[in-house]
Write a structure and sequence with these properties.
single chain, 239 residues, alpha/beta, Metallo-beta-lactamase, Chain A, six-stranded mixed beta sheet, 24% strand, globular
Amino acid sequence: MVEVEVIAVGGYNEVGRNMTAVRVGKEIVIFDIGLYLDPITGNNSVDMENMHSLDLIQMGAIPDDTVMNAVEGTVKAIVCTHGHLDHIGAVQKLAHRYNCPIIATPYTTELIKQQIEGERKFTVTNKTFALKAGAKYTISQNLTLEFIRVQHSIIDSVMAVLHTPAGCVVYANDFKFDMTPVIGDAPDLARMRAIGKEGVKVLIVESLNLDDRGYAPSEQVARLRVRDAIMRAEDDKHA
């Protein structure tokens, strides 16, 4: 049986700098390359577009991917699950180190392209590939990527499923079971159930606010609150 290894590069026991590498035999897939915003925001001396990745690593702003030097294998793909900066904000600083495509949903792909275009320190030549939720992408003879539709506070978010000879590796980071979303369709629970029956080797899932009881309300609730705030502001203006 082929060996599966998970390398927690960043985003574990912290918020931000998300980056996970999954090695299957001699092949590696990277999931997300994110930014930790705190060292960047409010610091006028930080010119991120012109900064070297090693300086940003030292600041704690981006994942320390130098740990990948000790991982034996070849990176075959970089996969981004949604467009928040804590998941894609360091792609333009680190992706050039890996000779592989960057795969994301169409909206997330456009955000990544914007970041690459704005980069001034490094030349990023990785090809980008837009993969829709529900579709699959053949990475290699042994690895196939699948995107499963989920909901989050940004559109075009997905769970990533890496199909391997040893079973499925499910990367489920930042999602909620919003069955009445404002934009897009509800999460594809049927496909999630099917993946579970096929056999999941590893489940990598977020745990932010795990200790908080309750549930995350639908984005419909947020929309109603925004509408209510606008209506109150209009009433105050005309009072």
